[in-house]
Amino acid sequence: MTDQPISGVDLELVDVTKSYPGQERPAVDGLTLHVPAGEIVMFIGPSGCGKTTSLKMINRLIEPTSGTITIGGDDVRKQKVDELRRHIGYVIQGGSLFPHMTVAQNIALVPKLLKWDDKRVEARVDELLDLVNLDPGRYRDRYPRELSGGQQQRVGVARGLASDPPVVLMDEPFGAVDPITRSRLQDELMSIQSELRKTIVCVTHDIDEAVKLGDRICILQEGAQVAQYDTPEHVLAAPANRFVEDFVGAGSGLKQLTLTRVDDIELRSWPTASVGEPVAEVLARAGQAGESSVIVLDQRRRPRAWCWVRDLEGQDRVPPPAGDEVLGVDRRATLNDALDDMLSSSYGAAVVTGRRDEFLGVVDFASVTRHIQETAQQVEASAGSGPDGTERT
Amino acid sequence: MQERADIVYGGYQHVSLVVQCVALAAVIAFLLAVLVTRVPALEGLANAVSAIGLTLPSFALLGFLLPLLGIGPGPAVAAVTFYAVLPILRNAVVALQGVDRTLLESARGMGMGAVATLLRVQLPLAWPVILAGIRTSTQMSMGVAAIAAVVLGPGLGGYIFSGLEQIGNANALYSALVGTIGVVLLALVLDALLLLLGRLTTSKGIRA
Ligand SMILES: Nc1ncnc2c1ncn2[C@@H]1O[C@H](COP(=O)(O)OP(=O)(O)OP(=O)(O)O)[C@@H](O)[C@H]1O
Ligand SMILES: [Mg+2]
Q1: pLDDT value at position A393?
Q2: Distances in Å between the alpha carbon of A244 and those of A49, A54, A172, A287, B169?
Q3: Of A55, A96, B139, B188, whose CB is crowded by the most CB atoms within 10 A?
Q4: What 3 state SS string does B65-134 have?
Q5: Which of A19, A20, A25, A170 best tests ligand 1's pocket when mutated (most atoms within 8 Å of CB)?
Q6: What is the mean pLDDT of residues B177-204?
Q7: What is the pLDDT of residues A45-59, one digit of tens each?
């Protein structure tokens, strides 16, 4: 995926079973799974099929009835349980932040348990807030209730990554936020993952999320039986059985939109303006590009606002944007997300951002529709030819 | 002058008795509440004890304690502490149970030990409700401590009783009033202090 070094380690479940007392059938029945170092595996399946149980057996919040789980080759049962957990990130729905602690205190918890010195902890907190796109100066000392749901979830992710654990477990991390925030958080997670390359096991209910985030998808049936464990492309193109087919759902053609990353189509450039820059220069730039709007960037080159040229006229310097929102979709966002973004802005294009939200360019309707047409033609072409390669009439 | 000094000293003793007993009771109640919330079978028992305990007349309890502990501060402390535990216990059980399970599981999942989870997550979150119990308990204990003066316990209770004993005497009403008003005033002051303590010890993140 990227050339960053892998900081994750292999995770292996061998014939893991969990029977709850008083239940005739095990909640997890002989699950065997290998998660390669540095990959994201998405667990998906119907409610009650044992996803959460499987996940919690990895950090021993639930003790397996039988079977073996190893992390980087070490049996989890051979380690002290608290020590083990301090080296496994754990992120759950809503962030589950401790309401009586500040953002910084929440994030610092595990590093402090690991007895890092104060300087190092402090630096780490700021680094992580930066990583999840929250300005440390503004958010460090806030309490969870002073954050939006999406911000709380970001802090939850930061807290899970605090001790730089090789393995991170996530249970429906983005289940509690609205769709737009969710796709934004997904983008951020992908961008973080491309930097850190942890081994991540993530439970989700949303097949689009699974396809988007997963290096592999593990589709589970009742009793955590693996129905299919494969890359998103293969799961969509060749569902292993009826169960998977039903689960993946109809319209997998449309799902291709979820498989295509913004990265895969060519970005266009767009005139930009920096906050505080003389307006005359911006106007000249926009005129040259033949556009009637510009994208306002802040000091860190993050896109903050669209701005019509006519609104700038008569001003001296580019004014700072109102809120603290960052615009656009990540370059690893799906075409689906990009289309959403375009439809909700009146500028006919979606801003695309890269690492740490830096501005990269835009995608517009024309390029997306062109891409859809091309894919449709390819799909038609492959459907049009029979198994023996002859054209259908 | 001497008399005024006596009253002040009585008030000091009264408050000192109550504060110490309530502090002791808070620790006992917290430990009991932790036990009760871990062993579900005990919950019914705890509720029954605190319900019945509060209906037990304090005179009866004192009479019962007298042969055991004799006269003086001993039975006074025992009686005040016994009553003081009850409201705190009830609030502490509710408060500890009221802490979101997923938060506690998160704490464990991050590698906090059982004791750290209790003291650093569960207690701070339950604290406002426990403190409300401590306030109720303090108010009640001011009264119970006055009654405990029957067994020659320290405090302002003596004024009330000597007043009531000598009804008709010119000084009787004065004496009873001094005792009663003193207890009420000190109770108000203590409550204000507890309110302040609550402000200082409740995280800004969960303050109402
Ligand atoms: N503590 C428990 N005691 C008894 N049974 C349990 C317990 N926890 C889970 N189960 C049962 O085990 C099965 C698997 O539960 P699990 O929570 O792993 O499901 P899940 O796949 O995460 O579901 P969901 O998608 O709804 O979160 C369910 O049938 C559930 O009822
Ligand atoms: Mg679950």
Answers
A1: 38
A2: 14, 19, 20, 53, 95
A3: A96
A4: HHHHHCCCHHHHHHHHHHHHHHHHHHHHHHHHHHCCHHHHHHHHHCCCCHHHHHHHHHHHHHHHHHHHHH
A5: A20
A6: 90
A7: 999 999 999 999 999
Is the minimum distance from the CB of A47 to ligand 1 under 6 angstroms?
yes
Q: Which range of residues forms the domain containing residue B96?
A: 2-201
Number of domains in chain B: 1
Six token digits for residue A356: 């740490």
Q: Assess if residue B47 is contained within a domain.
A: yes
Which CATH number describes the domain made up of A264-370? 3.10.580.10
Cα distance between residue B39 and residue B158, in whole Å: 43
The two most distant CA atoms of chain B are separated, in Å, by: 70
For residue B154, tell me if it sits in a domain.
yes
Residue A26: both structure tokens together: 């095990």
**A81 to chain B, minimum CA–CA distance in Å?**
7
- From start to end of A45-166, where are the E strands? 66-71, 74-75, 88-92
Domain ranges (residues) in chain A? 11-250, 264-370
| Structure-block tokens of residue A282 | 């911006």
Which CATH number belongs to the domain containing residue B137 in this structure?
1.10.3720.10
Asked if the structure places residue B206 within a domain, the reply is no
Residue with structure tokens 């109770």?
B187
- CB–CB of A218/A207 below 8 Å? no
- Interface confidence, given as ipTM, is 0.85
Rounded distance, CA B175 to CA B161, Å? 9
User: CA-to-CA distance for B11 and A261, rounded, in angstroms?
Assistant: 77
The token duo for A274 is 């920096």
CA dist., res. A153 & res. A196, Å (int): 19
Tell me the pLDDT tens digit for each residue of A156-171. Answer: 999 999 999 999 999 9
pLDDT higher at B123 or A349 = B123
Residues of B in contact with A85 (CB under 8 A): 108-111
Q: Contact A222/A30 with Cβ under 8 angstroms? A: no
Coil, helix or strand at residue A84: helix
Q: CATH top-level class for A11-250? A: alpha beta
CA dist B28 and B135 (Å) reads 16
B203 CB within 8 Å of a chain A CB = yes
Q: Is A45 helix (H, G, I), strand (E, B) or coil?
A: coil
Residue B208 lies in a domain: no
Side chain identity, residue A90: Y
Element (H, E) at A364: strand A359-364
Average model confidence (pLDDT) across chain A: 87
- Do A264-370 and A11-250 have the same topology in CATH? no
- Cβ of A204 below 6 Å from ligand 1: no
